[in-house]
TrEMBL record:
Its main location: membrane. It is a multi-pass membrane protein. Keywords: Cell membrane, Membrane, Transmembrane, Transmembrane helix. The keyword Transmembrane helix applies. It comes from Streptomyces parvus. This is Amino acid permease.
Amino acid sequence: MSTPDLPASARASEKDGGSPPLKRALGPKLLILFVIGDILGTGIYATTGDVAGKIGGALWLPFAIGFAVALLTAASYVELVGKYPKAAGAALYTQKAFKVPFLTFVVAFMVMCSGLSSASAAARAFSGDYLGEFTDAVPPTLIAILFILALAAINLRGVAESVKANVVLTLVEVSGLAVILAIGAYAVFSGEGEPARLTQIETGGTGYALLTGVLGATALGFFAFVGFEDSVNMAEETKNPARNFPRAIFIGVGVTGTIYVLVALISSLLVDSRTLSGSSGPLLEVVKAGGVDFPPKLFALIALFAVTNSALINIMMASRLCYGMANERILPPTMGKVLAGRRTPWVGIVFVSALAIGLVSTGEIEGLGDTTSFLLLCVFAVVNIAVLVLRRDPVDHHHFRTPTALPVLGALTSLILASPLADRGSDVYVRAGILLLIGIGLWVLNKVVMTARERSGADPV
């Protein structure tokens, strides 16, 4: 029996008795919810306070700038995933554009590490002030580790189960942000809050200090927008990706960006920046200050679901990236092994979950979140350039094509936000540098093993 919705390579793999292909389980509605759920979560629920600490009352400004930057790069991803609907994402695009295996590996490893640092930030957020509404009897680090192990088990169960869990968690986290929006509407109509705070930029200086302060807050706030790039790694598990991805990504980024700017406005309106920056559960402070009788414990529970969703998706995406890289021979083929009964990349799931557990102990929410943003901004610059390079490689099917100006602007803004102009802590560069060195070490090891197999006459695959 033929399988027309599978790539030819996947059908050949089944026919030849190789590893079974991934299951195409995502339709357009599930994909839109998946993208929204992928973006919403830890960033807005946990780092709003840290962004406020960098910029002051004009909390909405970094999120508005981040929204624009995200749209620029999202357009590039939409063109590329429609053109090359495979699971490897940015690594695939880099290899096709530049054909430099080392650069491809570095980009792929940075994407994977960004997902893991994001999941680790979510684990830290889960064990912070939101959980503190219920208990503080269990050590936060232990809670974070158990949290990641539980998510790994869900991912092993299957993509359909993981995505359905994502849909439920997405609806819950959207309800939490709807509560914030409702509180904001009540505050505006009842005359509550301090509108004057919305124009206060407190970066500790003027001129250059003002510029770097705003850029630093934007770079950290950009963590709230990461996620849409993860969805392209689900291309081989999506029905008709060339048609469904453009709408899903643009709707997802548009909805979440609008919500983020509104939530930032409301947060600053009701709570001063010092109070927000002093809490790992800043939106809980908004609920308490909103003048609406909404149970703080219920909102804390919603927030816990939200950060759970972020971590679930990031563990899922990192494991699919391992699977895609293994199929492209960038990682050892063992990383591409699929669990026969569940048809999930079990080796990849175990591997990335172990790394996420290790990252939990290296920093707090702000540092891990900023590391995620830095790594992805570097990748986004490469992807935006790759779009332009790959215009020389036409394909025989219809796909979305972004206006040329957008990837040019996307590359420039990504590079600026990744540069030292964005006033970030040195720990972010140190953490990213160590991760990159680990990646280079793995690349060298894999290269040596592959070369030895080729010389011995063994099949390198």
